[in-house]
From TrEMBL, chain A:
It comes from the Bacteria. It comes from Dyadobacter jiangsuensis. NDH-1 is composed of 14 different subunits. Subunits NuoA, H, J, K, L, M, N constitute the membrane sector of the complex. NDH-1 is composed of 13 different subunits. Subunits NuoA, H, J, K, L, M, N constitute the membrane sector of the complex. InterPro entries: 4Fe4S_Fe-S-bd, 4Fe4S_Fe_S_CS, NADH_quinone_OxRdtase_chainI. One of its GO terms (molecular function) is 4 iron, 4 sulfur cluster binding. This is NADH-quinone oxidoreductase subunit I. Belongs to the complex I 23 kDa subunit family. The lineage of its organism: Bacteria, Pseudomonadati, Bacteroidota, Cytophagia, Cytophagales. Binds 2 [4Fe-4S] clusters per subunit. The gene is nuoI.
């Protein structure tokens, strides 16, 4: 009997607490920067596409919902000719972001992707590529990679010696 | 067998091997870089360190390189010893100190031996803080991409390119930590086997440039075991597809045929499959335009008599399906009369029982080689690579007493220096193998044949002697005869390249003369195309017989199977032939002159889009499997089309239509000479634990996104009714049978180096035997040995020049020239003359000469080949712009007015 009255009392007190429910969509939810939502492709500090088409995100994807084709520009810089994510399959696990060696693919705190038509959940590169560096500002893969792809010449990268002169006789 | 103890466990192993091979054979994972099963050990990379102990009580031991230490009885060693393990890990750490941060943009990634070995040793974090060394790259031609930063200095590239394949233009430059592997300056890598560098290099220094155009990782490809279509040797290949386009060809190990290497024509000739000029739609070119295709075809097929023209580049099944459709008596081979005669002669020799046709791999062990009228480098490139190894056989045997094991590559090369076994080359012009030859003969085909007859005469005096040969030639023939007689495993290589029957007869005479009871001389014949032997075994009459038969006008329809007749005979002849028919049904992959004549054009599947069986030059029947289901549903195997035509023609019920296995069964039933073809590969209902064999690796990506742009609901994957392979990644993950191995992969071994897991011993045959079945040709050619006719010596004619066809690895093959990379390497049309003929015409190199051959006129620039005998001119064989010459040919040569 006493416990019953105690419960009724507690519930009564809850009426004066702060509300947890928010009035979405009028009121927006606060998400953390590392929240795993809509996937984007970012750009490096020079404005170039970060994605080099290495296929690691596609390989890491447990539902196989990423498909792309790598191609090259005249300088030998790799970029995806197409990049497709089927968000109707995506489980937002973030493995693609973990696998990405160039910080190109990133998950963003945005979940507002609902569609009436499932076909509209297929995102192409135009839908994915954003004009920002995302969570990792300052990183430019081609500055630290060994090959020359129009970003820097051979031996001009971070922590690189100038190219070897193979005709030199100096020991 | 000797007993060794590895980490205290006893193993019985084969003596004479090194520890690395032995460990790999036993299934132990021991990292290595510089060792290669086909090239032996040099101990350059210091990666395969193991610990060897004095005896069972020794606890200290010493580090040795496993590849440089032979197996001894009662040997104690440790692979897992902490010191050895740390040594290997630190070695990798040093190699990685200069290796660039490139994997994401490196084409090797995912099938990289360096990646695999790094993971295997456990090295994960870079401790070295200093700058990385860099190099400038070189342009190496249309086949290979160079990225020298990635090099780990294992020396495999130069060992393959220079020592194994005889290349001259790749070398190692500079010194100490600056060594550089490349050419002296930018330029096209000349060797015909350069593409193998992409597989030989353990990392991404040399990568496939055509793959780069449409780059796909190994794990993303749908792959199937296939057979190369670009010459008669039938090298085994793995073909990979992605997004409906063929992406890459890699070598598929076959211990009896190609081993670890294929030629560049085979590796880069695949792009005809992706050609925009493919025949894509079945089309009826008829008066009643707009008519239903089905009805038009059925009315055409039901009407009148049919003639069928087969093809040496179509599979056995396709040729047989055509033969069944048109009837045995109306089936023709689709090759010129002369070629058909040569082929039947070669078959009768091979099946005569007097000679032995060695598998390609065995030709590497011949101790004396005589090449009569062939240029293997251009007509059967992989054979030339084998002959390069054969010249080392004799010196290797001679050093048997020296106590140096054969795998000890550097020491062996040091010991034998420039010693070479005897190789004789007889061909009208210089060949690349001449540099290895003990003797060469540059003569007209007739004189090469006479030379052969002379050799036969000196071996067996009962054989006739050619008359009026000059003394010097006789002397050298006698010398060769002498060497051939003394040889343990003599080999004679001949073939159809020069279109001369007497040369083949001469080769046979020599083989016959060398026959001693059970011991038979090896005779290897080069044939024109990938299924020439299979077509010839059907024993149908030639194209010219078909032309004769059509003259009467009794046939309403001609069915032409994967064959451009304008490459087989003179244009006027073929035009005339086509005029005899009301309807011409052509099945082919690519648009060509013949397809433009077709009234019904049917798109046929290439080797990548269909299954079939080919018979190679040693009568080995090998199955190639469909790699992918083409997006275009009209592209289907020729045999399937022809079989379905049977519904209209023969009244076959749709339920009785044949699948591949039934067709093969029927083929063997109808032609017992093909007995054995049915066991070339497991049948379509073969399963392991009830599972199919997946064409896709388990890491295949994008399954739910590849077609999502078309429709977000994934379609059902295509079903394969003709083979035990599946088009998906689901299925049996263990070791498939050798003929069904779609790719090489083993846990921890992502690169092609994992092939040793598929072999019964490292470098040995595949588990369960090397694939392919040698046909015995039952019931064929019981009578043989045409009476030998010795031709008269070649004489210069006053009016006309005798012409010899000069084969070219890049250019002479019909399909591979459609690859842009191969096309870029093929020669422009030319005419080759000796210096005397050039003088008489007062022409110098580069002058345009006019050649008139049977009504055709060619304006060709002159190339001087001084070794060509007077009165003989060389023309590149079957270049796209120079086809339709009936060989052997003659022509009138004039200098055009300037």
């Amino acid at each position: 009997m006493i416990s019953l009255l105690r419960s009724i009392g507690l519930i009564f007190l809850h009426m004066f607490r702060k509300r947890e429910t928010i009035q979405y969509p009028e009121e927006k939810v606060v998400l953390h920067p590392r929240w795993r939502g809509r996937i984007v492709l970012t750009r490096d500090p020079d404005g170039g596409e970060r994605c080099v088409g290495c296929y690691l995100c596609a390989a890491a994807c447990p539902v196989d919902c990423i498909s792309l084709q790598a191609t090259e520009d005249e300088n030998g810089r790799r970029y995806p000719a197409f990049f497709r994510i089927n968000f109707s399959r995506c489980i937002f696990c973030g493995y693609c972001e973990e696998a990405c060696p160039t910080y190109a693919i990133q998950l963003t705190p945005d979940f507002e992707m609902g569609e009436y038509n499932r076909q509209n959940l297929v995102y192409e590169k135009e839908d994915l590529l954003i004009d920002s560096q995302g969570k990792y500002p300052g990183y430019n893969y081609y500055k630290v990679a060994g090959l020359a792809a129009g970003v820097k010449g051979k031996g001009e990268g971070a922590n690189e010696e100038p190219p070897v002169d193979i005709r030199s006789l100096i020991p | 067998m000797v007993r060794i103890y590895i980490d205290q466990k006893p193993y019985d192993v084969k003596p004479g091997k090194n520890l690395l091979e032995t460990c790999l054979t036993l299934g132990l994972d021991l990292p290595y870089f510089c060792w290669h099963p086909a090239m032996g050990s040099v101990g350059a990379c210091r990666q395969c360190a193991v610990k060897v102990f004095k005896d069972e009580n020794d606890r200290t031991g010493r580090l040795v390189m496993a590849c440089m230490e032979g197996v001894r009885d009662n040997m104690y060693l440790s692979v897992n010893d902490p010191t050895a393990h740390d040594f290997r890990s630190q070695n990798i750490e040093w190699l990685m100190s200069n290796h660039p941060h490139d994997c994401a943009v490196c084409d090797e990634g995912g099938s990289c031996h360096l990646q695999d070995m790094t993971v295997m040793t456990g090295h994960a974090y870079r401790r070295y803080r200093y700058p990385k060394r860099t190099y400038q790259n070189q342009y190496l031609g249309p086949f290979l991409h160079h990225e020298m930063n990635r090099c780990i200095q294992c020396y495999r590239c130069v060992r393959f390119y220079k020592d194994y394949a005889g290349g001259k233009d790749l070398d190692v430059f500079a010194a100490h930590n600056h060594v550089y592997f490349g050419r002296e300056k930018d330029g096209v890598l000349e060797n015909e086997f350069s593409g193998n560098l992409a597989e030989v290099c353990p990392t991404g220094v040399f990568t496939d440039k055509t793959l780069r155009e449409h780059y796909t990782r190994k794990w993303d490809m749908t792959m199937a075991p296939s057979i190369c279509q670009h010459c008669s040797l039938g090298c085994n290949i793995i073909a990979g597809e992605r997004y409906g386009a063929l992406r890459q060809i890699t070598n598929r190990f076959n211990g009896a045929v190609n081993g670890y290497f294929i030629c560049d024509r085979g590796r880069y000739g695949y792009e005809f499959v992706n050609d925009p000029d493919r025949v894509k739609q079945p089309a009826v070119r008829a008066e009643n335009d707009g008519g239903n295709l089905f009805e038009s075809i059925s009315s055409i097929l039901a009407e009148g008599k049919m003639i069928g023209i087969g093809s040496p580049r179509a599979s056995l099944e396709a040729n047989f399906a055509l033969r069944r459709l048109v009837g045995e008596e109306h089936f023709y081979q689709g090759i010129p009369e002369n070629e058909a005669r040569l082929m039947s002669k070669i078959l009768s020799i091979q099946l005569s029982g007097h000679v032995y046709t060695p598998p390609l791999k065995e030709t590497e062990y011949a101790d004396v080689v005589l090449v009569l009228g062939e240029d293997p480098t251009n007509s059967a490139p992989r054979l030339a690579l084998a002959l390069r190894q054969a010249v080392r056989t004799k010196p290797l045997e001679d050093m048997a007493g020296s106590n140096i094991p054969l795998w000890h590559d550097a020491a062996v090369r040091e010991l034998i220096q420039d010693d070479k076994g005897a190789l004789f080359m007889a061909y009208p012009v210089h060949t690349k193998l001449d540099e290895l030859a003990y003797g060469t003969l540059h003569a007209a085909p007739e004189d090469i044949a006479r030379f052969g007859f002379a050799i036969a005469h000196y071996i067996d005096s009962n054989a006739p002697v050619p008359e009026s040969m000059d003394a010097q030639a006789l002397e050298s023939a006698k010398h060769i005869a002498d060497l051939l007689q003394k040889a343990e495993r003599p080999l004679i290589v001949s073939g159809t390249t020069l279109f001369n029957e007497d040369i083949i007869q001469a080769a046979y005479q020599i083989g016959r003369a060398l026959e001693k009871g059970e011991k038979k001389a090896g005779l290897s014949f080069v044939m024109p195309e990938c299924n020439s032997a299979g077509l010839a075994m059907m024993q149908a009459p030639s194209l010219h017989a078909a032309m004769k038969a059509a003259e009467g006008g009794t046939f309403a329809t001609a069915v032409i199977l994967e064959n451009d007749l304008y490459r087989r005979a003179a244009r006027a002849e073929v035009d005339n032939f086509f005029r005899a028919f009301k309807n011409i049904i052509v099945l082919d992959h690519l648009q060509n002159d013949t397809t433009s004549k077709a009234t019904v054009l049917i798109p046929a599947a290439t080797f990548a889009e269909g299954e079939g069986t080919l018979v190679n030059n040693e009568l080995r029947a090998q199955r190639f499997f469909q790699v992918f289901m083409p997006k275009n549903e009209h592209i289907r195997e020729s045999w399937r089309w022809l079989d379905e035509f049977g519904q209209f023609r023969l009244g076959t019920m749709p339920g009785d239509l044949r699948e591949l296995d039934n067709l093969v069964e029927e083929l063997v039933g109808a032609m017992p000479q093909f007995k054995g073809v049915e066991s070339a590969a497991p049948s379509a209902d073969f399963r392991i634990n009830g599972q199919r064999i997946p064409r896709e690796p388990h890491r295949f990506s994008g399954r739910t996104a590849i077609l999502a742009n078309v429709a977000v609901s994934e379609p059902k994957p295509p079903q394969d009714t003709d083979s035990p392979l599946s088009f998906t990644m689901e299925g049996y993950r263990g070791m498939p049978p050798a003929p069904l191995t779609p790719f090489y992969w083993s846990p921890g071994w992502n690169s092609g180096q994992s092939v040793h897991k598929y072999q019964s011993e490292a470098g040995g045959p595949l588990r369960g035997g090397d694939p392919g079945v040698r046909l015995a040709g039952e019931g064929l050619f019981s009578v043989n040995g045409a009476p030998s006719h010795i031709p008269a010596a070649f004489k210069r004619q006053e009016q006309a020049m005798a012409l010899v066809p000069l084969a070219h690895i890049f250019g002479s093959d019909e399909l591979s020239v459609h690859s842009p990379s191969v096309e870029g390497r093929s020669p422009r049309p030319y005419i080759a003359l000796g210096s005397r003929d050039a003088e008489r015409l007062q022409a110098v190199e580069g002058d345009i000469l006019q050649m008139r051959i049977a009504g055709q006129v060619f304006d060709l620039p002159l190339i001087l080949k001084n070794e060509l005998p007077e009165g003989l001119a060389g023309l590149p064989y079957n270049l796209p712009s120079m086809s339709g010459i009936a060989w052997p040919a003659q022509g009138v040569l004039t200098k055009t007015g300037l």
